Amino acid sequence: MHKWRIAIFALLVMVSFSILLLRVAHLQLVEGETLARASMEQRLRIMNTPAPRGRIYASDGTVLAENRPAFVVQYIPTADPPSDATLFVLSGIIEVPISSIRNAIEEQDQDRPYAPVDVAVDLDSEQYTKIQEQKHLLPGFRVVPRPVRRYPEGSLAAHVIGHALTISERELQTFEEASGRSYQSDDIVGKAGVEKGGEFELQGYDGEVRVEVDAYGRLVDSVLGREPQPGENAHLTIRPDLQALTEDAIVEVLERLQEGRNPVPFDRRTGTYGNLWDEGEFRPADTDNPNRKYEDATQASAVVLDVQSGKVLAMASYPTYDPNVFATAPLHLPGSEGARAWSETWENLNDPASDQPLSNRAISQIAAPGSTFKMVTGLAALEVGLNPRHTHTCRGRLDAYGQQYGCWTTHGSGINLVRGLAVSCNVYFYQLAQQIGVDRIASMAEKLGLGDDTGVVGLPSGEESSGIRPSSEWKQEVLDETWYPGETLMAGIGQGYHAYTPLQMANYAAIIANGGTHYRPYVLDYMTDASGEVTHQVAPEIINEQVADPEHIRWIQRGMEAANERGGTGYSRFADYPKPHPETGEPVFIATKTGTSEVRLGVDNHGWFVAYAPAEEPEIAVAVVVYHGGGGSLAGAPVARMIFEHYFGYLDLNDREVGGLME
User: Fold this and answer.
1) Residue 663 pLDDT level (bands cut at 50, 70, 90)
2) What count of other Cβ atoms lies within 10 Å of the Cβ of residue 247?
3) Alpha-carbon distance 660 to 615, whole Å?
4) Phi and psi of 187, rounded to 5°?
5) Cβ distance 458 to 198 under 8 Å?
6) C-alpha span between 508 and 73 (Å, rounded)
7) Which SS3 state, helix, strand or coil, does residue 220 take?
8) Which of 175, 192, 467, 568 could make a disulfide contact with 162, Cβ separation 3.0–4.6 Å?
9) Which class is 48-233 in CATH?
10) Which residues are within 8 A (CB) of 162 and not within 5 positions of it... i.e. 6 or more apart?
11) pLDDT for 286-339, tens place per residue?
12) pLDDT value at position 662?
């Protein structure tokens, strides 16, 4: 009996030993390579080194967007999560709740289980020092520098530059396929403006570091595997001096309109209005109602184009914002002071009472152009055979289709095309519209780029609004309604369904200015790599070489020039033009057109103003709209005047600080 027990025990020992040998053999021979790799992964981590985004420059080399180093606290995942004692020490230093740190670690990206987790960003010097002093109490955590966006000029050209934030799930899914590069869930990408439009060029290629850690996650050694490759640099067409001047002029005009003052001071000595910053008497904005205040005049936009190429020299939208607020916003953990501050900032930016400062009104907000559209109607009529010398009589209204269609005053007899544009006679253009019909007007508007995306190079297409170019077909398709004859009259003077962006209006003015060549606007001039070599040059792109008969366009130009002469709608703002150029001495003429966009009863109108100069050899075209600012001469023209005064060198700001730049 005893022998049997010994035999059974020996058999069990032999079987167990055999199983153990088989298991060891399996681990070594079958799973050896896999286990060795897993062991190495516990010791060696491959971590990304973020590549700096490319810089963004203005046309003169002014840096509009660059990178600065921010110190980031990261957790390097280990077999065991950090202890409560470790989190207590860290939380006290970085002022982030323990629960937020723990949640961030537990929610680690499963696709990258060994990737470091950011738990604090942009440490101040005191926090950095404390972590370095107590790092022996913080196993698994390290401090590393990370490039974050910096916008040295603050809000200057903010809507053109845009801003960057953490990549979204949707972007993560589409960007790799679209760009051919790898994106990570914590990458910072462009969300608006050039930052978004040039995302794939601005975004560099991350580097790679092999980091060796011990069982506690403490750094043992690191080896650089691949240098990060910086993104390309974007060089814009924006002139920072002109941009700053335009933005400052808009703010000045809005403030004075809200106070009920004519934006431009009146000089009794000369009997004329001057510049925004001149000395003089401020008269009421509405002389018929001296107590009237344009309190809703809180939004405006202006665009300045090179008429011979399509370059955007300035693009302003108000209200604006400082893109620096987005620099580290997405990196703060919930419960931190940074997260609370960002929550308040985001709430303010999206508060309806703040007038949507993130919106680039120059390309996204549409409004009826009012009388600035009359050149379209006039050109359409010329193209179908109108005699520009043929005259009409304005009695202050036109009786048609059982209704009365009013003019803003009574202009009398002898109103031809040039005079009609100069004094902005509604009755004259009612009759033109009546003769040619809405579809011919719409066809000419299309040739002049109105009602379609401009395709401005450098900005994302999704930000641009195409506007509304009404026609009988458009109304049937969109509204399922028949076009009425009376609507044609309103369409002829830029009212009714018409709605266009400031960029479209500036481009339309530029086409008239240069004699009929339709260029595509562009804000991106060229791209360079880290060594300064040009990788991509944007060339002027002609969409339509000649939109209409040059002689017909010349008649329209004469009308815009006459609008700036005595009796014209632009004369009160440009009475001192033509005047000699400061350098050449040649007289500079301005060609203008005012417009008042009717909104609805009881609401102040939008004030439009389009112009170009010099009239004889045009260089720049300008479009300005002040929403709810009254008429174009009152609200839009003062901004345009400042642009011309500065561009041609007449403006002496006496070292006045404009938009953060010194003149």
Assistant:
1) very low
2) 26
3) 31
4) -65, 145
5) yes
6) 52
7) strand
8) 192
9) alpha beta
10) 190, 191, 192, 193, 194, 195, 196, 197, 323
11) 999 999 999 999 999 999 999 999 999 999 999 999 999 998 876 788 878 888
12) 41
CA 544 to chain centre: 26
- Token output for 474: 């458009």
Provide DSSP, 537-604.
Answer: EPPP-EEES-SS-HHHHHHHHHHHHHTTSTTSTTGGGSTT-SEE-TTT--EE--EEEEEEE---TTSP
CA atoms within 13 A on the CB side of 477: 7
Phi, psi of 158 (to 5 degrees): -55, -40
Helix (H) or strand (E) holding 287: none
At 217 the three-state DSSP class reads coil
From 43, 436, 457, 74, select the one nearest 238 (Cα to Cα): 457
Domain boundaries, the chain: 48-233, 240-321+357-662
Give yes or no for a cis peptide into 578 (omega within 30° of 0).
yes
The angle, 0 to 180 degrees and rounded to 10, between the axes of the packed helices 550-562 and 374-383 is: 150
Dihedrals phi, psi of 251, to nearest 5 degrees: -60, -45
User: Rounded to whole angstroms, how far apart are CA atoms 441 and 131?
Assistant: 70
Here the tokens at position 9 are 């025990």
Average pLDDT for 342-369 = 91
188-190 and 591-597 as β-strands: parallel, antiparallel, unpaired? Answer: unpaired
pLDDT of residue 404: 95
Element (H, E) at 84: helix 84-94
Task: From 279, 333, 319, select the one nearest 95 (Cα to Cα).
Answer: 333
The amino acid occupying position 559 is G
Residue 488 has pLDDT above 80, yes or no: yes
Instruction: Pick the closest to residue 501 from 302, 643, 356 (CA basis).
Output: 302
3-state secondary structure at position 30: helix
To which residue do tokens 């190429």 refer?
A: 309
Question: What is the pLDDT at residue 35?
Answer: 45
User: How does residue 40 score in pLDDT terms, banded at 50, 70 and 90?
Assistant: very low
How many CA atoms are closer than 13 Å to the CA of 17, on its beta-carbon side? 6
608/629 Cα distance (integer angstroms): 9
Identify which has the larger pLDDT, 85 or 353. Answer: 85
User: Judging by beta carbons within 10 Å of its beta carbon (0-12, 13-18, 19+), is residue 195 exposed, middle or buried?
Assistant: buried
Q: Does 240-321+357-662 match 48-233 at the fold level? A: no
pLDDT digits (tens, 9 = 90+) for 142-177: 898 888 899 999 999 999 999 998 888 888 888 888
pLDDT, greater one: 651 or 533:
533
Question: 15: pLDDT confidence band, cut at 50, 70 and 90?
Answer: low
Tell me, what's the pLDDT at 616?
94
Q: Of 187, 205, 318, give the one whose Cα is nearest residue 639.
A: 318
Q: Are 146 and 207 in contact (CB under 8 A)?
A: no
Fold classification of 240-321+357-662 (topology level) = Beta-lactamase (3.40.710)
How far is the C-alpha of 497 from the C-alpha of 368, rounded, in Å? 7
Q: pTM for the full model?
A: 0.89
Structure tokens at 362: 């120059």
Q: Which of 18-22, 356-360, 392-396, 406-410 has the lowest mean pLDDT?
A: 18-22
Kindly report, residue by residue over 187-234, the tens digit of the pLDDT: 889 999 999 999 999 998 888 766 666 655 555 555 556 788 999 999
Q: Provide the sign of the torsion angle of the four alpha carbons 407, 413, 417, 421, taken in this order.
A: negative
Question: What is the helix (H) or strand (E) element at residue 412, kind and residue range?
Answer: strand 412-415
* Token pair belonging to 62: 């002014």
